[in-house]
Design brief:
This protein is an alpha/beta fold. The protein contains 9 helices and 14 strands. It has a 6-stranded mixed sheet with strand order 8-7-6-9-11-10, with helices on one face. The protein has a 5-stranded parallel sheet with strand order 2-1-12-13-14.
Amino acid sequence: MDIALVVSDVDGTLVTDDKQLTPAAVEAVRRLGAAGIGFTVASSRPPVGLRHLAAALDLKLPMGAFNGSTVCTPDLRPLSERLIPDAVAREAAARLDAGGIDLWVFADGVWNLRDDQAPYTDLERRTLRTEPKVVPDLSPLLGRAAKIVGVSRDHAGLARLEKALAADLAGRAAVHCSQPYYLDVTPPGIDKGSFVADLGRQRGLPRERIATLGDAANDIALFRESGLSIAMGNAAPAVQRAASRVTLGNNEDGFARAINRFVFGDT
């Protein structure tokens, strides 16, 4: 396949479970660049959580943060930003609160929460390489929210809430579990797929010349906008079925193997 652009998810795909880029992944991105193939990322992370990846991989193209609803340059200069409508943000926050779910609000470029010792805050610190801002009341931030995250150790309960909340907010917000413990609420009408489609149009590329990689349900939108879609070996069966290829898991250098095998044709 004559691939000219590769767009990858980050967590569970490009990095290992301990949030590290492997030497093989770095070399695979370097190989893409040497061949004149563009590379960038689309992630549920905020822009600040992509900064060190952009530097380590010497990225040149715009990056899609918050599942594509915020687009920024590799030095984090914003190119476009969509926010969750105020009333919808408040409804989503109320539903999460009612379910006893910890609430994070990403607004004004800051990760905001009420308890910095709550579950998964240490993981998010390592992932984003930044500290949260502790605020007693998140309500004033909901009118400026780029992403709301419900956080819980009850993965099954969060999955049930995902289905219910997605149905209730259909057309008014995007609702996806980006990890079994994170339920993301982001602006409506835009996702990782629309980010890829926009980037492809800007570069004059047909869908057939774009490759995408991902591991989670919110990456299926990526797959729909590419001619070559690659699911990770650690992806759920439904995500693997949505892709045209499946590689090894993210802890087995599946990203690098996919680039070398499916983009460059190595055996």
